[in-house]
Write a structure and sequence with these properties.
Order of helices and strands: EEEEEEEEEHEEEEE
Radius of gyration: 16 Å
CATH topology: Immunoglobulin-like
CATH class: Mainly Beta
Number of helices: 1
Largest sheet: 14 strands, mixed
Strand content: over 45%
Number of strands: 14
Structural class: mainly beta
Length: 198
């Protein structure tokens, strides 16, 4: 179980190390840390990468084609958010019940999520070779609208964390919790794992 402790505590580093599809072996080393203070969630991804790219600069654009880290989160057990960021912090967010039943969150709402990339915000052409980078995110609970009522001490919700990059020469699909699917597909809410707020 992923435990989301208070920001004042030291957050444990959790791995993105599950290789779900043997046809896509991973060579990057990725992890995340998550905490909250009752009003906002602090999420940080750290990646020791084999290659990185971040060409998309428009929110709700196809960031999954770049090196991308993602958090899929279901607060009500029915619908889920897929929040995705490329290495420069460009964000995509949709909300719905499945891959084929989703709506984009309005771009002006995405501006509420503060994003700090160690690589900066400018587009990044493909860099081959070892690259260390991090992405820090501050997500207000209010970002989730009425669903924020599910983010309270003692609540357990469900979700997963991922790393991908569909257009990179070396494709990798890493997750924290295992994903049950014959081919790469993170939109599998039935395989989300528990995330507990304390």
């Amino acid at each position: 179980m992923i435990t989301v402790g208070r920001i004042s505590d030291t957050a444990a580093s959790l791995s993105l190390a599950t290789i779900n599809w043997p046809a896509f072996p991973a060579h990057s080393d990725a992890s995340f840390r998550i905490a909250w203070d009752g009003e906002r969630i602090l999420l940080r991804f750290d990646v020791h990468d084999t290659m990185v790219q971040a060409l998309e600069t428009t929110d709700n654009g196809p960031v999954w084609r770049d090196r991308c880290v993602e958090w899929f989160l279901s607060l009500d057990g029915i619908r889920y958010y897929n929040m995705e960021w490329n290495a420069a912090g460009t964000m995509l967010c949709q909300y719905g019940t499945s891959r084929h039943d989703r709506e984009f969150m309005a771009p002006e709402r995405l501006t509420a999520v503060e994003r700090i990339s160690s690589l900066g915000k400018a587009p990044i052409a493909l860099i081959a070779g070892p690259v260390d980078w991090s992405l820090t995110l501050r997500i207000p609970a209010a970002f989730f609208g009425e669903n924020a009522r599910h983010i309270v001490p003692g609540a357990t919700v469900r979700g997963n964390f991922y790393l991908c990059g569909d257009d990179l020469p070396e494709k990798q699909y890493l997750s924290h919790y295992p994903v049950a699917s014959d081919r790469p597909d993170f939109h599998r809410p039935e395989t989300f794992g528990p995330i507990s707020f304390r």
